Amino acid sequence: MADTMIEPPMMVINTVISVMAYEYPPEKLSLLLSNDADSHLTFYTLLEASQFAKYWIPFCKKFNVEPSSPGTCSLLRFNF
Question: In terms of Cα–Cα distance, which of 9, 4, 30, 13 is closest to 69?
Fold first, then answer.
């Protein structure tokens, strides 16, 4: 992974979860991530995202949420 200022962890997570949600045969899709240990933040963000994806992806499929990227979903936007 690159510098967290160049590739913010949320951008990486949105991309990874979007790819995981593709309607494509799983046996034909591989998702490879590399981490050069530049940022512990990126590592732990990916770890948390893997747990989130277990619930998010089935939710998106059940309710036809498009796009499946959490960062673009209006369901997750809150005004504080």
Answer: 13
